[in-house]
Give the backbone structure.
Amino acid sequence: MPADPSVHQDLASFAGRLDDLTEVVCRAAAAIIEVDPATAARRQKSDRSFVSSADEAAQLAILQGLSDFFPRLPAICEEATVLPRPARLGQWFALVDPLDGTREFLEGRPEFTVNLAVVSAGVAVLGIIAAPALGLLWRGFIGGGAQRLRFDPARPGVFDEMVSVHTRPRIPGRIRVAVSRSHLDGNTAALLSRLPVAERIVCGSSLKFCRVAEGAADLYPRLAPTSEWDIAAGDALLAAAGGVVKKPDGTPLRYGQMAQAFQVPAFLAFGDRAAIRQIIEGGRGQERPH
């Protein structure tokens, strides 16, 4: 087995084992597919979101896979945190959401994902998002471009139909927006009412990042709190595809904010970096729907 890149601590080492990281995500996808959503055990957390036996199976698969391939890499997951001693993150760590879109999964919709990001010094530099029910996976790292692959959860180490994906330049006066099926908050809806939205692409989970990364949407806004593991993989994927994720004031996101319980107050994901200022100003009322 190649040397553990968490020892070398550079992006080239992680990128060189992108297939290993992809296999870890595919193992989690396989664990989810084995669970019948109609009979899956579930419980409700204090924030009223659900955790199912599929979440737990996927998380176990990811943590075991990371332990196998990257034993020195700290991992921050939605339901578990594995830190080295002393309990600090260090420069390099993983952010994982083993099942993003639990509601979609339990309701029998295919819009759920597995998310894995590698973070360096607060920046998401590598991201992988798999949609098990769709048999699709997106991955990329900063400076290395982004790809969409087809995979079979029954064969976690096998993937094919690999194509490059890129964001698209924004068409002036027309914005295609990816919006949440289950979590469209009032502030985000108000923002959209002030922009020239030509089309809303409604879907669950981190698939919205994938739609922006492959040029099917221009913008994915969320002006409500979310967790770092929900968006870090999408942030890295989008950066690799030519886009960017920013705070609503245009400043960069930083990951590993333990003091804030890994919470992100709000963000805007852009396909066209050149359109950031126009969209932010438009959201403040300087641009009107056509």
